[in-house]
Amino acid sequence: MGSTSKRKATSTTTTSATTDIMSKQQQQQHGIPWVEKYRPRSLDEVVGNEDTLIRLRAVAADGNVPNLILCGPPGTGKTTSVHALARQLLGSAYSHGVLELNASDSRGIDVVRNKIKSFAMNKVSLPPGRHKIIILDEADSMTSAAQQALRRTMEIYSNTTRFALACNVSTKIIEPIQSRAAILRYGRLTDEQVLNRLRYVCEQENVSYSNDGLEAIIFTAEGDMRNALNNLQATVSGFEYVDKTNVFKVCDQPHPTTVRAILDACVGGKTNEAVIEMNTLWKTGYGCGDIVGTMFKVARVHDGMGEAMKLEYLREIGFTHMRIADGVGTPLQLMGLVARLCKLAEEGPASSTEM
Predict the structure, then answer these.
(1) The pTM is what?
(2) Domain count of the chain?
(3) Which of 63, 92, 101, 237 has the highest CB neighbour count under 10 A?
(4) If DSSP codes are grouped into helix, strand and coil, which group holds residue 205?
């Protein structure tokens, strides 16, 4: 009987240990950011920028990778595309055949001379005809001296190593490097592409949502898939249901309906009403940049004004945004913008063009 009780105790302990391990794995799986959990692993899974992906698929089929410069807005799949290409080319050798350095790493001239150069010199067993790949994320933040040193490294080790530089603006990369690389340009994702991906993630995670909630996420993301997935996960974590109200609570942007009311008052020439609405919005705590940025997005899709008037409104909002970006972020800028928009509505767009 003693041995039987010992066996029962042992089996109970083993079962509880297994349960603890499984619960820890589930917690770890649950804690993964959706941006990483649903990051595409192959080129076929990458969303948007089809013209650019066709070129990358051709490179993957050929096997001979040129040096690459991938430029475009954040969250459009630049770094993800390079990693997917590297996986397809290197297979099981991906882990030791790829070096990635991002903006959080020191990437001065010493790193180029030491870390990058030593990786390029190392002998690694790769599939026949394949090259090591060095990925430099946000390469436009590298100093000019580091880029000059990198240019020489690219020449010396061109037989064994290829470089992929991801950046927001390709003109910040020095011309000698630009001439040695193929430039691939990425654009912002369309609303439909972001929407399809959001719906897929919601199905995988069993998220309950409303259509206006997903539309609100698309509105706040502005074609940035990373931003869209982060906003979706934040809304689900905070409220468990994705609708318009919850999304704007989490994203903490001025509500488009409120901004639309201000623009409607301006179009109708109701200066006092527009000023009161703007002052109320300002007192809720939003910054001038947030308010003007949302005004620009709402005005761009506003259907209550003609095309000429819309262009003049966008022009005035853009000038105000520029002044705020230069550091003049005061309520006076917002009130001045409202007054100018109301004046435009009264005089018509032609008067502004003549000036």
Answers:
(1) 0.76
(2) 3
(3) 101
(4) helix
